[in-house]
């Protein structure tokens, strides 16, 4: 019960109960809220709505036809395949990196964290370019790959590699601060009681980090499915073969087939909405866990 | 070098394997590919590199990319602070919904944002039609790039400022009020200095993202060389002409700027953390 009430207070704004010395007159508040909502409306809400409006403008039949067209279907399949490879790889990396960084003290840790963040500050176009320099026809392995008839650039492996690069930091970035904040007392206790490494991780660490982990995976997946710039450089834009959903949107749009472009785009917009909803749920759940922990601690005191 | 020098003693297992895997994966996916870009430009020599990255067309794209990114970052700093303030301090209907919506630019694929903004801000679009009669064209001009970059950068500012505002103790504001400061003075002298480092960090993050942005911009930009051609697009153009060396040279010049920005952001975040702990 106490957990539920503390959730309520945690989510109501501090200003609501604060004395008037620390808030603004009603009219100022109304104007500030109005400007903020207008800004968010113009820049976020209206664009989101317009995607669905443009997609369904010519009726549901046209919308559906654009989605079941063979090129669109193969784009959907490729997008799912890419995410299915890139997300688990970055998940394993994220957990390993967070374990090493959060549970141990070593030299150069801060520098390692900076290196992990690196892909966020590299332009997607450059992320694609560097793989062309390595695996492209004139690249480091170009001759070798050609001799052995292996295609990486302008083929699916290149798309997967570029996607792994741009989604690289997501899971690690969520887990590192979370696991650092939780400390390692519980894991150490488990160790002293005789648990092995895998048991410690599975029974002690994982239950503590599951929401953060899920959140990282959700963000990683959204980016993996929606990446455009990096994938565009390495894809070669071969319809039906190396087109992901975002690239399919571009091709159809450039053919002035706007309704079909927005229909495909609406799938990605739905993905974004699902991501936002899941994110809110995860935040709500983890806030509840924290509140519950705080409540137990208070009882113990 | 002894192990104790490198890391402190710890009873937990898995250090070697987790750190080893982290470093291996980091090298394979990020560091070795990135070094390919630097090695490629190394082969062309300093003079050729400099000549490539200072042609008028490239300079024009730098001015456009950095100019619009700075401006978009500034717009986001102002409105992002306002949004964060409204979300933290005021209670209103739909607040939780708005709070979730702020992350839309993180979740919405850039190509979708690009075509949506283009159709809205075109001369006959829902929003563009109100500007067209005054001779203001937004889509297919640098103004359109600004719109796209503002969209992309907004959550960076809101999400860095918001937690700092939430942690801000109202006692300080009460003290200011009891000493006779009005709300504006309190805001400028007490609140703004406290959120300052976070605000600058958010601005820097939004700026860094905007400089490299490609997907949302190319649809709305018009992409006219010297006028509305951003640097990432120029890299693609060079690639499509099979000018790999030229493309890489421009890419390296952008990478250097990105690394400097990353360094600044790291310093800023360290600063914010210290202030918070103090």
Which terms summarize this structure?
heterodimer, A: 301 residues, mainly alpha, disordered N terminus, B: 278 residues, 13 helices, 77% helix
Describe how the helices and strands are arranged:
The complex is a heterodimer of chains A (301) and B (278).
Chain A (H helix, E strand, L loop, with lengths): L1 H10 L2 H4 L8 H31 L3 H9 L1 H34 L5 H9 L6 H12 L6 H6 L8 H12 L2 H13 L2 H8 L4 H30 L2 H7 L9 H10 L3 H43 L1
Helix pairs in contact in A: 1-15, 3-15, 4-15, 5-9, 5-10, 5-12, 7-9, 7-13, 9-12, 9-13, 10-12, 11-12, 12-15, 14-15
Chain B lengths: L2 H4 L8 H28 L3 H8 L2 H34 L5 H7 L2 H4 L2 H12 L20 H26 L2 H9 L4 H30 L2 H7 L9 H10 L3 H34 L1
Helix pairs in contact in B: 2-13, 3-13, 4-8, 4-10, 7-8, 7-11, 8-10, 8-11, 9-10, 10-13, 12-13
Give a nutshell description of this structure.
The complex is a heterodimer of chains A (301) and B (278). Chain A has 301 residues and is mostly helical.
Q: Can you offer a commentary on this structure?
A:
The complex is a heterodimer of chains A (301) and B (278). Chain A is mostly helical and 301 residues long. The two termini of chain A are 18 Å apart. Helices cover 79% and strands 0% of the residues of chain A. Chain A contains 15 helices and no strands. With 278 residues, chain B is mainly α. Chain B contains 13 helices and no strands. Chain B has helices at 3-6, 15-42, 46-53, 56-89, 95-101, 104-107, 110-121, 142-167, 170-178, 183-212, 215-221, 231-240, 244-277. The interface between A and B is large, with 109 and 98 residues.
């Amino acid at each position: 019960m106490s957990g539920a009430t503390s959730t309520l207070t945690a989510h109501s704004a501090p200003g609501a109960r604060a004395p008037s010395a620390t808030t603004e007159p009603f009219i100022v508040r109304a104007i500030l809220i109005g400007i903020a909502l207008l800004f968010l409306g113009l820049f976020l809400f209206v664009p989101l709505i317009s995607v669905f409006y443009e997609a369904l403008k010519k009726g549901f039949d046209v919308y559906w036809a654009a989605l079941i067209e063979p090129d669109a279907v193969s784009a959907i399949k490729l997008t799912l395949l890419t995410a299915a490879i890139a997300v688990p790889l970055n998940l394993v990396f994220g957990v390993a990196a967070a374990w090493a960084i959060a549970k141990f003290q070593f030299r150069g840790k801060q520098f390692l964290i900076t290196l992990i963040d690196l892909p966020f500050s590299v332009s997607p176009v450059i992320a694609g370019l560097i793989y062309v320099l390595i695996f492209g026809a004139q690249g480091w392995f170009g001759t070798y790959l050609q001799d052995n008839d292996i295609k990486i650039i302008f083929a699916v492996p290149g798309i997967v590699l570029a996607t792994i690069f741009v989604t690289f930091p997501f899971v690690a970035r969520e887990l590192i601060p979370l696991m650092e904040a939780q400390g390692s007392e519980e894991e150490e206790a488990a160790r002293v009681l005789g648990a092995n490494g895998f048991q410690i991780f599975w029974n002690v660490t994982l239950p503590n980090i599951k929401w953060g982990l899920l959140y990282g995976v959700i963000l990683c997946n959204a980016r993996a499915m929606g990446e455009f710039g990096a994938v565009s450089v390495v894809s070669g834009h071969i319809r039906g073969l190396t087109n992901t959903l975002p690239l399919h949107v571009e091709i159809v749009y450039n053919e002035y087939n706007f309704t079909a472009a927005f229909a495909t785009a609406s799938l990605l917009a739905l993905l974004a909405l699902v991501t936002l909803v899941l994110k809110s749920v995860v935040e709500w759940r983890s806030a509840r866990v924290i509140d519950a922990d705080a409540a137990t601690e208070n009882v113990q005191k | 070098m002894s192990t104790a020098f490198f890391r402190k003693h710890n009873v937990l297992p898995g250090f070697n394997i987790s750190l080893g895997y982290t470093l291996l994966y980091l090298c394979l996916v990020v560091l070795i590919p990135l070094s390919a870009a630097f090695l490629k430009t190394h082969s062309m020599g300093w003079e050729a590199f400099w000549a490539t990255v200072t042609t008028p067309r490239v300079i024009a794209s730098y001015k456009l990319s950095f100019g619009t990114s700075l401006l978009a970052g500034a717009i986001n700093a102002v409105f992002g602070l306002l949004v964060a303030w409204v979300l933290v301090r005021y209670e209103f209907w739909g607040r939780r919904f708005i709070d979730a919506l702020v992350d839309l630019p993180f979740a919405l694929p850039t190509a979708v944002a690009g075509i949506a903004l283009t159709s809205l801000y075109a001369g006959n679009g829902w929003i563009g039609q109100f500007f067209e009669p005054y001779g203001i064209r937004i889509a297919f001009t640098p103004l359109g790039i600004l719109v796209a970059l503002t969209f992309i950068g907004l959550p960076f500012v809101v999400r860095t400022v918001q937690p700092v505002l939430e942690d801000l103790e109202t006692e300080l504001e009460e003290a200011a009020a009891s000493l006779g400061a009005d709300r504006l003075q309190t805001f400028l002298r007490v609140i703004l200095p406290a959120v300052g480092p976070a605000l600058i960090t958010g601005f820097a993050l939004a700026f860094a993202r905007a400089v490299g942005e490609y997907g949302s911009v190319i649809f709305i930009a018009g992409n006219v060389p010297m006028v509305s051609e951003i640097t990432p697009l120029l890299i693609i153009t060079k690639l499509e002409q099979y000018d790999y060396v030229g493309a890489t040279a421009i890419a390296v010049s952008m990478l250097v700027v990105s690394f400097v920005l990353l360094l600044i952001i790291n310093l800023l975040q360290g600063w914010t953390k210290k202030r918070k702990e103090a």
